[in-house]
Amino acid sequence: MAEKCTIVVFSGEVDKAFAAFTLATTAASMGMETEMFFTFWGLNILRRKRWLSGKNLLQKLMSLLNRGGADRLPLSRYNMLGLGPALMKIMMRRSKVPDIPEMLKLAKQLGIKILACNTTFAFMGFKEEDFIEGIDKFVGAAYFLGESKEAKVSYFI
Amino acid sequence: MKADDTLDAYGLLCPMPIVKTALKVKEMRVGQVLEILASDAAIRDDMPAWCKATGNELLGIEEKDGEYRVYIRKLK
After folding, report:
1. ipTM strictly over 0.90?
2. B23 and A98: CB-CB below 8 Å?
3. Domains and CATH numbers, chain A
């Protein structure tokens, strides 16, 4: 059986997402069975770009602040109202570094399993249609820990 | 060195040379040799690690003026 690598993607910033996808795509390329578990802010990476989501008023208000979409994630430092990510995007493109939407496609191509946190999904009032295609499963912590127990390498990002 | 196929990873940074190598090798037959052209110095240590992890053979790494030619043989 192939060795396993599991990665918790808790953060929703572009720099941290990039680190997570770099490790995940490399692990899969090295023949490891790789799973990424997106939870809390990490779910934003898997959300479609919408200006409003949520079922009740609080969830709707939160969705105005907490925007989703893999191509408009903030930076964890020097965000400066979007100036930092805009500069970083140009710098990364110049060095032919893939952006997060490209990394997501690559992850699917490499057979990486994409898991999403069901609890965050529920209390944020998201619906399935708020998310991109290609999510394998919405799961809880027990499922992910079950997978991680068998993993040789595990990261929390 | 004679190769059956060439992968141009020139100008790409980690993790792309390794990811592209893995995808390319998947299409090749056992015993075939792949030549990888790269400019990212990380490949000097990344490719031996990749070969060790995947059970493929590293035939050699040539460097000339910041250009790397890496040769690997598919064993699995």
Report:
1. yes
2. no
3. 4-156 (3.40.1260.10)
